[in-house]
């Protein structure tokens, strides 16, 4: 059984690619350990106040993000591919156990717009890591909306937080 | 890495369970071979006129069903779990490569209602197979809609066709 190749589609996808001075094993740990997630996952002043991880295809990836005003935003998706230290794929289009998810926010008109699948790919690069986050949407509108919501700034800032946190441990 | 256990939720899921006189290996072949799929997948007088299979997590499962009036209904989902002769899981909530799918029919008001994940589980039973199809929906409304569309009759009839076709080969 050969692995999926994830090729970005510029019409539909957003990509953050960066070299970071943290080894792949530590980036992996940061992404797959609830205690670590709480320290870096959400760009400040937002916080991640809870996290649950069952690291296998179909297993839960649940977070609760808290806004600066104190409002909580729980979300639960599931993992699709788990290749230790190399690749982590999860989606919020499916709930834990692969069940199709309910729309993330009933008040949102287009119920598909906040739905995505994320592929985190790690490659050794010197003592650090070539880090690629590929975020796939159903359509161009979803990509555009996510970009306008500040994808590059948000995911970039979260990655800065991951690097700072893992380097000072 | 332990496997997912798929526990039916009676509020959200539909289940077809049956003992059939076809060995698990042949039921598996029927489900995973495009030429076979065309012979049994769609309850007559509907037909399946095309099928494409890339049998790995994230790989395409595409069918084109033709109505008695000659209208074609293409659909492409992807596999999630592939355990030879034992368990096949796929969904139409994700397109090939794990990308979130676009709604299956733009004209449908609730864009989630035709979305499901199917788990086909096979266990040896004498010379035949204990066959379980578990179909998971996002919400109770999805389950109800699918049931009203004739789930039990349709999936049951398709299974009858699978058995008849594999036994006469």
Task: Identify the notable features of this structure and list them briefly.
homodimer; 169 residues; alpha+beta; 7-stranded antiparallel beta sheet; 4 helices; 7 strands
In brief, what are we looking at here?
The structure is a homodimer. Chain A is built from four helices and seven strands; from the N terminus they run βααββββββαα. The first copy, chain A, has about 170 residues and is of the alpha+beta class.
Write the layout of secondary structure elements.
2 copies of one chain form a homodimer.
Chain A: E1 13-20, H1 24-32, H2 34-40, E2 47-53, E3 60-66, E4 72-83, E5 87-91, E6 117-125, E7 128-136, H3 140-148, H4 151-168
Antiparallel strand pairs in A: 1-7, 2-3, 3-4, 4-5, 5-6, 6-7
Helix pairs in contact in A: 1-2, 2-4
- What is the straight-line distance between the termini of chain A? 38 Å
Oligomer: homodimer
Q: What's the tally of helices of chain A?
A: 4
Most extensive chain interface and residues per partner: A-B, 38 and 38 residues
Strand percentage of chain A lies at 25-35%
The major β-sheet of chain A equals: 7 strands, antiparallel
Shape of chain A: globular
**Quick one: how many beta strands of chain A?**
7
- Which consecutive residue ranges of chain A, at least 5 long each, have pLDDT under 50? 105-112
The computed structural class of chain A is alpha+beta
- Helical residue percent of chain A? 25-40%
As laid out across the biggest beta sheet of chain A, the strand order is 1-7-6-5-4-3-2
The H/E string of chain A reads EHHEEEEEEHH
Radius of gyration of chain A: 15 Å
pLDDT averaged residue by residue of chain A: 92
